[in-house]
Amino acid sequence: MIPQRLAKALNEQIKNELESAYLYLSAAAYFHSLSLDGMAHWMRCQAHEETIHAMKFMDHLTDRNSPVTLLDMIQHKTRWISPLELWQDAYAHEQFITSKINELVTIARDEKDYQSEPLLAWFISEQIEEEATAAKISGEIDMVGDSKSALLMLDRELGGRAFPPGSPFDPLAYAQA
Ligand SMILES: [Fe+2]
Ligand SMILES: [Fe+2]
């Protein structure tokens, strides 16, 4: 069993990761509405990744014989005034998630729950990647300024991200369904 204080925080993190997926799906819908289909595709890939993060926490609780409770999700922003605002929000959101992972590490150490350390170490590395990626893309969008052709180029580039095979967020995965 996981110490109760940590188990509570891990359940909350399942919710945080699913809220991230929901936020990135809203972002995908916004980008589709602007015909920035490459960015929409990138956000759908990211939504998929967030559901995997949620499952990692869920599996950890289950493996440790601790109850999983799926909490109510809150609705994050669903409208933006520009792609720049959205990418800056994505970066801010990942910084928030990093703060939650850091809190989990603090609690795990306070409670001497060493068995949570490998999972949390994975998430520490993951958040370095997530923040770096969101910061890089935000910076590039900022550089693009008012140039529609540069924005389209970046959109094409982000559209090259690969879906994990069989992803339910990939239109090709359900094309025949
Ligand atoms: Fe995540
Ligand atoms: Fe990632």
Q: Which key phrases capture this entry?
A:
5 helices; binds fe (ii) ion; mainly alpha; Ferritin; 177 residues
What features would you describe in this structure?
This protein is mostly helical and 177 residues long. It has helices spanning 4-33, 37-63, 83-110, 117-144, 148-158. The chain has a single domain, classed as Ferritin, core subunit, four-helix bundle (Ferritin), CATH 1.20.1260.10. α1 runs antiparallel to α3 (83-110) and α3 packs antiparallel against α4. The longest helix is centred in the N-terminal third of the chain and has 30 residues, at 4-33. The radius of gyration is 18 Å and the shape is elongated. The model has no long low-confidence stretch (mean pLDDT 96). Residues 49, 126, 129-130 line the site of one fe (ii) ion (FE2).
